[in-house]
Amino acid sequence: MQADIFCRVVDNYGDIGVCWRLARQLARDHGWDIRLWVDDLASFAHIQPGIDASAPRQQAAGVDIVHWSDAPDPALTPRDVVIEAFACDPPAAFVDGMRRSHPVWINLEYLSAEAWVESCHGLPSQRPDGLVKHFFFPGFTAATGGLLRESGLSAERDALQASAGLQDSFLRSAGVPDDALALRRDGARTVSLFCYPSAPAGELAQALAADSRPTLLLAPQGVAPGLETACQAPGAPRLVRLPFIAQPDFDRLLWCADLNFVRGEDSFVRAAWAARPLVWQIYPQEENIHLEKLDAWLARYPAPESAHALIRAWNQPESGDTSAAATAALAPDAWLAWIAAARLWDASQSALPGLAENLAAFCADLAKKR
C-alpha cells in the first residue's frame, strides 16, 4: 500500500505523536510506503531528533515527510490510501485529485471508551462528490480499531523493568543525575509528570511530601512551572527537569517510573503499555464533555476506587481533592492493588490486535472492493 497521512498539530505533541507512531509502524511492520503531511514541523522536531523544521520535504525512519503548507505541491497526487487524523481535512486541491483516483479515505478518530464508538467504527460516509470516507475509531475492545502497539514492545519493556542497571543507564542518559538515581536505589518512588497547565501539580507535591516514602519526580522542561516552588517544602519530592526526548525514549521513561501522570491520547496509551499505575489528564472540552469520556474509561480500568478518585480529582482541580486523593491512593494496600490492576489492564489490552494491524487489514479489504 502507498498512503498519505495528514496531521494538523493542535495539542503540541499529541496529534503528531499518534501520527508519527502510526506512520512508522505501517512502514516498518506492514511494508507501507508512507507520506506524512505535517503542518507544524517545529513541534514534530521536539519528539523526533533530526527533523528540520524549515524543510519542505525530508525523510525519517523510512517515512517521506512533507511540510503541509497552504499551497501543496500539485505533483504530490493522492495515493492508494488517504488517512486524515482527527478530521483535519486534506487540502481542497488534494481532495480534487482524490475525486479522480478514488482512494480509500480514512478519518482516524480520537480514542474513546464510550459504548457508542463500537457501533460507529468502520462506518462509511458517502459524500455528494462520490467520495466515501470511513471512520476508524481507536478503542479498548475487539469491536473497535484497538490501540497503537509496536511488535516486540512488551518484551523490550519487560527486559528494562527487570534490570535496575539498565534503568539507571537509561535515566542517566536522559538527564537524571547520579544523586537522584541514588534515591531510587534507596527505595524512593519514581513519578513521571506530563500534564496540562490546569493540573493541580502543587497539591500533588504536597501529598508526595507527606508520604512516608520519598519521591523522585521527573517532569519535562516547561511543564507545571510552579513545581520548583512546591518542591522546596520539607520532605518534598526531588524534582528533576528533563528535556523533551524521542518517542522510544519517552516509552522507556514511563517504563522506569512507578507512577505515570500523562495527558492527552498518545502519552496515555504509552503509559498503559508501561504496565504501571497511571493518572490520565484528558484533554479538556467545553461543558465538561471530557469528564464523560473519562468516566467511560474508568468504568473499564480495573484499578481500585482510591485510584479512580485520584484520577477524577486530577481532572477537576477546582474540587481541591487532589492531595487527599493522592494520599489515599498511595497508601500501601491501595498502592499494591493499583499495581496489580495496571498489569491486568496491560495484559487484557495486549491480547487484542493493535491499531496499525487492524487499520492495515481494514484498508486492504476496502481496496479489494473498489
Number of domains: 2
SSE run: EHEHEEEHEHEEHHHEHEHEHEHEHHHHH
> How widely separated are the two ends?
14 Å
Q: Figure out the total of helices.
A: 16
Mean pLDDT: 95
The residue fraction in helices comes out at 40-55%
Describe what you observe in this structure.
With 370 residues, this protein is of the alpha/beta class. It folds into 2 domains: 164 residues; 198 residues, Glycogen Phosphorylase B (Rossmann fold, 3-Layer(aba) Sandwich). The chain has 16 helices and 13 strands. The strands form 2 sheets. It has an 8-stranded mixed beta sheet with strand order 3-4-2-1-5-6-8-7, with helices on one face. The chain has a 5-stranded parallel beta sheet with strand order 11-10-9-12-13. It is globular, with a radius of gyration of 21 Å.
Please sum up the structure shown:
With 370 residues, the protein is of the alpha/beta class. The chain is 44% helix and 17% strand.
Please describe the structure with a list of short key phrases separated by commas or semicolons.
eight-stranded mixed sheet; 2 domains; alpha/beta; Rossmann fold; single chain; 370 residues; 17% strand; 16 helices; five-stranded parallel sheet
Topology:
Blueprint: E1 2-7, H1 14-30, E2 33-38, H2 41-47, E3 57-60, E4 63-67, E5 81-85, H3 92-101, E6 104-108, H4 116-120, E7 124-126, E8 132-136, H5 153-161, H6 164-174, H7 178-185, E9 189-193, H8 201-210, E10 215-220, H9 227-230, E11 238-242, H10 247-256, E12 259-263, H11 266-273, E13 278-281, H12 289-298, H13 305-315, H14 322-329, H15 332-350, H16 355-369
Parallel strand pairs: 1-2, 1-5, 2-4, 5-6, 6-8, 9-10, 9-12, 10-11, 12-13
Antiparallel strand pairs: 3-4, 7-8
Helix pairs in contact: 1-16, 6-10, 8-14, 13-14
